[in-house]
Amino acid sequence: FYLNFYSTRIRQLPKLRGTKIESIAWNQELATDESTNSILLGTINGVIYEYYLEFSRKDEDVIEKYLKSLLELPDKSAIQGLVMEILELRQGKGLVVYCATRASLYQFYGKNSGGLFFIRPDQILESFAANPSEIRRVEKSYPRENASKSQLQIFYTQSPVKPHSFAWKTGCGVCYAKFPGRYHKGDLFIKDFHFLDYTDYQPKEDGGGQLEPNAIAMSEFHIFLLYNYELIVISKINQQIVYRPDPKRARMVSIVYDTRSNKLWYHSSRNIYQLTVNNEDEGVWKLYIDQGDYLASLNFCRERKSPFLRQVYALVADSYFDEGNYIDAAKNYADSDLSFEEITLKLMQADTNDGLRTYLSTKLNRLDHEQQTQRTVICTWLIEIYLDKLNRLYCKKSACQQVKNRGEMKTPEEEEYEEFYEEVKEFLQANKGSLNEDTTYQILQSHGHIDLCIFFAEENLNYEVVIRHHINNKEFKAALNKIKFIDSAAERERIIYMYAPILVKSQLSEFYHTILQLGDVFDPVKLIPAFTSADYSERLVVTTLIEYLINKKQSKEKSVHNLLLFFYCEQDDENELIKFLSKQKILIEGGDRPSIDLDYGLRLCQQLGKIQAQILLYEIMGLYSEAISLALDNQLYDQAQNSA
Q1: Are strands 194-197 and 252-258 parallel, antiparallel or unpaired?
Q2: Among the four 75, 169, 301, 519, which has the fewest Cβ within 10 Å?
Q3: What's the pTM?
Q4: Mind listing the pLDDT tens digit for each residue in 212-253?
């Protein structure tokens, strides 16, 4: 028979005539007020049917769309409990069916090869009939001769609505377990069974030696056993009796727990009793701890956002610490309410650098970037710990290399060292803003890791340190190349002025091209020490560079021009020298002051025997008689005539 919520008439169902139904599995996801959608029917002879029923409000008519026989249990026992759930799988959807008989519990789990378990709502169970090879059956049996009626109870979470756990009443006790959070191919839906033996929970008034309860119900953390005259509430965590109301006078018949209102209803043939469950989860975390299930307590506190969460983290960490698992202990200590000083001292006393490093790294990740002082202190400490381990790994690697034959593959010690070396670099890169540069350089150098020091300098764009390193190692081309990476023109100039004497003497050509590529306006006066350090054979390049810098800056500094004059005088060919002095003559004729010291130039030319240059300088200085006399003495009649 069928009675709809919107109707007052009970309707017969012809397709089910003669079928003795023991249990029904409702479609929680697709059912509506006017349609059952696809549901399962369990019969007294162990057959599972798929059934679809619709109701029309307009004429209050019932339409039986179909009735299909899906499968038959091997022992043909009455199906006294039946539940089905649609599953969200990685590739589409699937369906799991839980089926309880008097002494056995079955699971049927199906998914078609195409990834979708059903195509239309009215075909939701089609793969059970069409693809028997895709069906997996799991059976759990507790046989007992005097077992009466089996019962299967499911507890559903409310947000979202999904099965959380089950309890199965058998003839010898209650079996209960949690459903997995996810279903994967090859996994069973139950992994950890718990069992309540009836002999441990006898009613005070047993009603004539009653062993098996009449019915059971369950909430998230408790199981309710209903006997003839008494109700017993048992914790699912520690299996202890937590509540036992006074026995009733009338014989109890059935019991049900409402998950939405958290109320328990049980009744006799005359009375209905209500029991309200308040704060059921209070103290649950401690029960888990007492049972030694620290992870369950931790997960519970996380889900409930319990104020005891940090306390539980400490207990979980202590358990890991006692086991010698210092890494996991450190991770949990970082989330606990224990003080920083207490934990660091504890880990140091245990001589576990890995644990201490894990703890400090976790605490560092929890600090805001505004907490700069704390971050700097922890980062500096971590650098010391990282380098200590890196040195230990280096010693192990070196010892293995001494006995390894050339050409052999890398040893595990070498691979471990290289992996950890990259980890240290990642730490320096990620925390460069929190590390004090000068202190970090000192620490890295004190441990002998100059390569890491240079890496850290480059990450901080501190190219002066990198350039100094290359120069100390006589890697002058690399030093010049790094100068190009400096963004600040003022900083580039400072570095150039500082290292120019060394670079000009060792890599003049590269230095020259670098100056041209940078295009900066360098002050040639500040480069005079560098120019004078150049080898005699390279004076021509220096002369060209000075000319470029003078023209670029439009410099009139006499010291620079005097140096250029000196380099011109050193050349065998006087053409460039004459051109240079001719420009000075033009300046004077135009009313400007010369850019060289004329007396210095005259002495220099006399010393080096530059006759034509001397004649030109006498003319510039207005000493024409000296110019004519010098020209005639050297039989330079044309020049003497020009001077006259």
Answers
A1: unpaired
A2: 519
A3: 0.67
A4: 898 999 999 999 999 988 999 999 999 999 999 888 888 889
